[in-house]
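pls design
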């Protein structure tokens, strides 16, 4: 039996990230990290669907839409834009079907999302990056996504997958730009920058010591808490 598409994407992209782990992975392109995290969250969505938990699936789809928007912003290349817009469109279809309580529609949308994500993963971003997106589905899906990506980073570190932990931290640094875009009140941009810097520190670490990485991940959490406490 062939493995699901999302597993194949994670494995192939994680190999790329592991090859760079000794030097950290925070470089000019976050594309591979976003692809891999997107694939992992498609796997989470598949789990919700298998459990017939359509409410959680709809929430998960909102996060997938955000990840796809962040992926789209990596390049203005026409081929890249076309491929990532397909991922966004199918994420929206999945969210709509799940919110409507439609298991069959959700299953079809998720299958098409897996295919769209696999097609996009075969491309390399060229051209110029675009400004960071806004949180189209709203602030709650963004917060849930941040929590999920951070939790995956912690689990990856605990299980010895240091490259994957850093990969999730790199995606958090990209999501920090969405956080910054989501509000305009005084001090919000500065706190978002602190969150981004903490995430980049973890992503760019050359350490393979789980204790050291745990401390860096804790720094991300502390920057989040400082933001929440200030609201």
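designed seq:
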């Amino acid at each position: 039996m062939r493995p699901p598409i999302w597993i194949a994407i994670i494995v192939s992209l994680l190999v790329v990230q592991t090859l760079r782990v000794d030097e950290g992975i925070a470089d000019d392109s976050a594309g591979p990290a976003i692809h891999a995290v997107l694939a992992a969250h498609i796997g989470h969505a598949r789990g919700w669907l298998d459990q017939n938990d359509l409410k959680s699936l709809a929430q998960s789809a909102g996060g997938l839409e955000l990840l796809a928007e962040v992926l789209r912003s990596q390049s203005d290349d026409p081929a890249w834009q076309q491929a990532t817009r397909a991922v966004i469109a199918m994420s929206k279809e999945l969210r709509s079907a799940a919110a409507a309580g439609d298991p069959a529609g959700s299953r079809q949308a998720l299958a098409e999302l897996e295919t769209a994500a696999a097609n996009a993963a075969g491309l390399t971003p060229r051209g110029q990056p675009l400004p960071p997106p806004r949180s189209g589905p709203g602030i709650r899906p963004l917060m849930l996504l941040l929590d999920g990506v951070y939790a995956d980073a912690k689990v990856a570190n605990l299980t010895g997958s240091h490259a994957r932990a850093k990969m999730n931290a790199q995606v958090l640094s990209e999501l920090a730009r969405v956080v910054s875009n989501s509000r305009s009140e005084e001090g919000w941009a500065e706190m978002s920058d602190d969150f981004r810097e903490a995430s980049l520190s973890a992503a760019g670490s050359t350490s393979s010591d789980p204790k050291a990485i745990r401390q860096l991940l804790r720094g991300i959490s502390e920057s989040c808490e400082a933001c929440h406490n200030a609201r």
